[in-house]
Specification:
Protein name: LIM domain only protein 3
Radius of gyration: 27 Å
Largest sheet: 3 strands, antiparallel
Pfam families: LIM (PF00412)
Strand content: 25-35%
Bound molecules: zinc ion
Order of helices and strands: EEEEEHEEEEEEH
Domain LIM zinc-binding: 26-88, 90-152
GO biological process, one term: positive regulation of transcription by RNA polymerase II
Structural class: alpha+beta
Shape: rod-shaped
Keywords: LIM domain, Metal-binding, Repeat, Zinc
Length: 160
Amino acid sequence: MRPHTQRPFLSAGIQMLSVQPDTKPKGCAGCNRKIKDRYLLKALDKYWHEDCLKCACCDCRLGEVGSTLYTKANLILCRRDYLRLFGVTGNCAACSKLIPAFEMVMRAKDNVYHLDCFACQLCNQRFCVGDKFFLKNNMILCQTDYEEGLMKEGYAPQVR
Ligand SMILES: [Zn+2]
Ligand SMILES: [Zn+2]
Ligand SMILES: [Zn+2]
Ligand SMILES: [Zn+2]
């Protein structure tokens, strides 16, 4: 049996194979037509036209050098879209659950928060745009609670 001549791996999970002239053309998993090109892509145990293996979101060709194939929920995605849809932003600093990348978040310094979690962690007051909030020991505080905390610790300027 003749070994496949193949170009090196383009990216994880995608192989480019040269089509042997004496073999039956393979069907493309993307468009279901026969692949009569000189090269075909093999990914996910299926064969594809070079043009048919595309990201379901942005249509970029995944056979291009440097791109990586990601699959999830029957979608074939490029790395960027995969991370955008299924990656995570980080852990919410308030409830410490993961925040998926597509969710809106509030950021304060290096912390990220669910929108719902972004509230004063002492009195649960939500903040509106323009409201002041304070970060203390990694807790979000409203101005009132922040100042009260300072008073208790005796950092506030003493009023005589
Ligand atoms: Zn095709
Ligand atoms: Zn994409
Ligand atoms: Zn949260
Ligand atoms: Zn508060």
